[in-house]
Amino acid sequence: MKGVIHANADAQIVDITHDLPRQDVRTGAFWLREILPWYPPAVHCAVIDPGVGTDRDAIAIQAGEHVLVGPDNGLLLPVARELAGVNEPESVEDSQTLTESSLIAYSIQIDDPESTTFHGRDVFAPAAATIHEATVDNLGDLELLTPTESVVDLTFPKPTVQETKATGDVMVVDDFGNTITNIPGSWIEGVSALRVNGEQVPVADTYAGVATGVRLVTVGSHGNVELAVNQGRGDEAFGLEPGDGVHLER
Amino acid sequence: MKGVIHANADAQIVDITHDLPRQDVRTGAFWLREILPWYPPAVHCAVIDPGVGTDRDAIAIQAGEHVLVGPDNGLLLPVARELAGVNEPESVEDSQTLTESSLIAYSIQIDDPESTTFHGRDVFAPAAATIHEATVDNLGDLELLTPTESVVDLTFPKPTVQETKATGDVMVVDDFGNTITNIPGSWIEGVSALRVNGEQVPVADTYAGVATGVRLVTVGSHGNVELAVNQGRGDEAFGLEPGDGVHLER
Amino acid sequence: MKGVIHANADAQIVDITHDLPRQDVRTGAFWLREILPWYPPAVHCAVIDPGVGTDRDAIAIQAGEHVLVGPDNGLLLPVARELAGVNEPESVEDSQTLTESSLIAYSIQIDDPESTTFHGRDVFAPAAATIHEATVDNLGDLELLTPTESVVDLTFPKPTVQETKATGDVMVVDDFGNTITNIPGSWIEGVSALRVNGEQVPVADTYAGVATGVRLVTVGSHGNVELAVNQGRGDEAFGLEPGDGVHLER
């Protein structure tokens, strides 16, 4: 993919990661939404694509000065909304993302690619290069792109937050083992300890706010409640993995 | 290596991978041949070097507008041929790569390097930087380089392809577990199922052409027959690893 | 972090590694000291930060034309000394690094960062970007930086080297399994075999100086005694890990 981009565009490539879980569109969508808003405007090419080679579309979405390029499987919508300041709908059924917002989506023409198994190389990288060369202001003029309002959306599970109880899900586990939930960090403000799935755990501002090896609840850099261990792995200590339910009582 | 290159050349470095199997020259040669033809002309520095510090040569090979830099152990010849449009010989014994082709090979002067164990840093990176600064048109003028016709070659095992049977080898397993053989994909064109080492397996154009977790035979992005699992690992499901034999019947 | 840097500076980012052991400041300090002297002058941002969010300082150290940015936990001092040509003190207690040397240290103002758990993104990357834009000659003018002489130091354990015996420690194990000690390579010059923790092992200039799979003692690219296996893992064959003692007799 890097070779194809360099062969077709005078672009600076920033390589973000190749270490996301394989085939996991939801996790990819979560991390894109966390990471890309910290970048300056750019063409962002992201490929988690279990449907490669099938009749799923390839799409580009313009969100402000950013353009997202990837498969039409929901991977790009959450970060596109974040970049454009559009609220996430309650569920995919309620999605009116494209009609109600400043997002503009395009279907990318897939023209007899060299392979059916590596569209990163054969569809997305060349499209990203073409879009980069055209610049974001001229997407409408590219033959490669056809405006569309029908793209696959993806939303994240919503937590249930009450006064003394909150129920949510593990969204992802990061590289350190920190276990990131969808419960907003504001819910634990001013709290010094919580029951996490029935067990008492201290709340701390920092990992080092508890002794080495001790479990804690904190607010992570994403703003959500995070279950962690000081200098250890929260996922192992709490016995949790992505998709598991998390019940907090304060 | 990156520091040495940046200290000695005004170059843009593209970092392709550090995740190839350790010490495995053949696998490195395979992936270089697959990957580098997608790049624009460049100085490509590749180091898989079990003989580091011994009297094995360091070489540079000019292949068209590309220059390859690395140890003289066969790593660079297959991709050099691919870049220059030279056919692979039947075997290393038949190799006349350099005499019959447009490839030009040079021995790199190894002048008392700082270490005997890290020629990536002490020999190959500085040579790549010097070559980059000189540009491909001036290789003959570099004191660092001495033309040579004696370089170590490497060829890949050839499959035996008959009308209804094909026997080959697993060349490599990719990061997803896809098991890549040396049997040409054209051999399975129009076929809907095959026996793979005796077991019936469907043929599909795409991974998603079978149900999740199901084995399939497909043509990979390299053009060869590939043994895979939809959203799973082909190597584990087929019980195969690089070097293993693969027998197909249609 | 890359996004924040690109959003705040016109910089070329060189991504060295994300694969160091988690939370291990000493190992990070070792590798920084080995790697950065091969780089041209630059702003080097390094984060191994078990105390993130606590009252530990964030610091920048000017060492010649280089600037190091990271947490004030010892990570940066060994490489700063190396870059400035300052000898390592016998121990942290003897450290007069900043008063006696050409190193200039600054405390980085931490101004209500967005998170308490990811100062790489919220403190160090923005500071590195600001410093890069200001250039090394103008650090004293930056409001962000306050000169300080009180920084946390870190020294490495010293070996005991006698005429026929040397005792040291495993400093780190590299990605190949090579087991790197703190015993200077000069101590094994001209020696053909050693007892390593009581067992006879050949000394060789190169990994391939012994048969495949055989253990050897060599001098690594860092100049220290290294315990290795030709095309294998020294750490496993010697049963050693970082911090273990190593006793050599010749």
Structure description:
Three copies of one chain form a homotrimer. With 250 residues, chain A is α+β, with helices and mostly antiparallel strands. The first copy, chain A, has helices spanning 2-8, 25-35, 77-84, 97-100, 119-134, 234-238; strands at 43-45, 58-63, 66-71, 104-108, 145-148, 160-161, 165-173, 179-184, 193-196, 199-202, 215-219, 224-229, 245-249. The model of chain A has no long low-confidence stretch (mean pLDDT 95). Chains in contact: A-B, A-C, B-C. Chain A binds chain B through residues 2-4, 6-7, 13, 15, 22-23, 50-54, 114-118, 121-122, and chain B through 14-16, 35-36, 38-40, 176, 178, 205-209, 218-221, 226, 230-231.
Helix content of chain A: 10-25%
The run of helices and strands of chain A is HHEEEHHEHEEEEEEEEHE
Largest interface chains and counts: A-B, 21 and 22 residues
Kindly estimate the percentage of residues of chain A that lie in beta strands according to DSSP: 25-35%
Categorize the overall geometry of chain A: elongated
How do the helices and strands line up, and which of them pair or pack?
The structure is a homotrimer.
Chain A lengths: L1 H7 L16 H11 L7 E3 L12 E6 L2 E6 L5 H8 L12 H4 L3 E5 L10 H16 L10 E4 L11 E2 L3 E9 L5 E6 L8 E4 L2 E4 L12 E5 L4 E6 L4 H5 L6 E5 L1
Parallel strand pairs in A: 1-3
Antiparallel strand pairs in A: 2-3, 2-4, 4-5, 6-7, 7-8, 7-13, 8-12, 9-10, 9-13, 11-12
Helix pairs in contact in A: 1-5, 2-3
Short description:
The structure is a homotrimer of 250-residue chains. Chain A has 250 residues and is of the alpha+beta class. The first copy, chain A, has helices at 2-8, 25-35, 77-84, 97-100, 119-134, 234-238; strands at residues 43-45, 58-63, 66-71, 104-108, 145-148, 160-161, 165-173, 179-184, 193-196, 199-202, 215-219, 224-229, 245-249.
